[in-house]
Amino acid sequence: MFFSIIIPLYNRPDEVDELLESLCKQTDKQFEVVVVEDGSTRKSDTVVKKYRDKLDIIYFEKPNSGPGLTRNAGAAGAKYDYLIFFDSDCIIPPNYIETVSHFLEDHWVDAYGGPDAALPSFTITQKAINYSMTSFFTTGGIRGGKKSMEKFNPRSFNLGVSQKAFEAIGGYGAMRFGEDIDLSLRLLKNGFQTALIPGAFVYHKRRSTFRQFFKQVYNSGIARINLHLIHPGSLKAVHLLPSLFVVGITFSLLLSLLYTPFLLIPLVYSLLVFIDSFIKNSSFEVALYSVIAAWVQITGYGTGFLSAVWRRLILKKGEFKAFEKKFYD
């Protein structure tokens, strides 16, 4: 099989350099690369030039419109029948294309997603965030695992879809956050098959600071309500847990002013996260940072979710966006 790899870019020349370097090491070379600059002020044209002789690569610029519409622009210029979307902060293992090709030859699906992992070279913060995004104590273990608590929705940092299916649903919508889940839900609604390919993992660097991570998960909380309004029935009980956790912890902290043992609730949770992360990462520092990452994730997502509930469901306001222009700052 031949693939068209689409990479949307916004002010990430250093990241895309690592990504393109990893693509040069693929054991299966049957792919092209389409890099789309989404109105960046720090362009990656010089970086891309380094790989002209190493990869079948296309690069072009467009005005800023967000990741979804930028992926659509890349797909419009793709020449092969199966698209693969990577975020610029990913590094791809050498056997990725080979793994996907073999899977699709044996078990064809219209779209797939893959999990993510952390490299030893990642910073302590990045390793902690990676733990938080895949841990049972933060996401219920539904991200990056072999099984999901709901029908599988591929995520855009590591997603493949046939051109036929992509064009049939009109590609990505205009959402800046939650656009990948919106795409997945429309694929499923239109009868296309999706699957998780456990072996098709990527090394995902995610955000490099807790401030950036908070912005990301806050917007994810907002996006979940926006998705609920676009796709009634897509909101599941598991999506409510972070906001309920935030409310519960807030009450426990207030009650601790009257009865100190209520402080044990957040302390026990932190201890469980620390122990679990230490077992998985064999690092005291990563485990300690994982506690911070877990609290950032749950409070960020939970408050974003509650804010969107108030503005969109109670006050009946239009689409709620936040940090749109400063997502990476």
From TrEMBL:
Which PANTHER family did the record assign?
GLYCOSYLTRANSFERASE, GLYCOSYLTRANSFERASE 2-LIKE DOMAIN-CONTAINING PROTEIN
Q: Outline the extent of the Glycosyltransferase 2-like domain.
A: 4-131
**Which parts of the chain span the membrane according to its record?**
244-275, 287-310
Gene3D superfamilies attached here?
Spore Coat Polysaccharide Biosynthesis Protein SpsA, Chain A
* Alphabetized UniProt keyword annotations: Membrane, Transmembrane, Transmembrane helix
Its name, as the record gives it, is: Succinoglycan_BP_ExoA
Organism whose genome encodes this protein: Proteiniphilum saccharofermentans
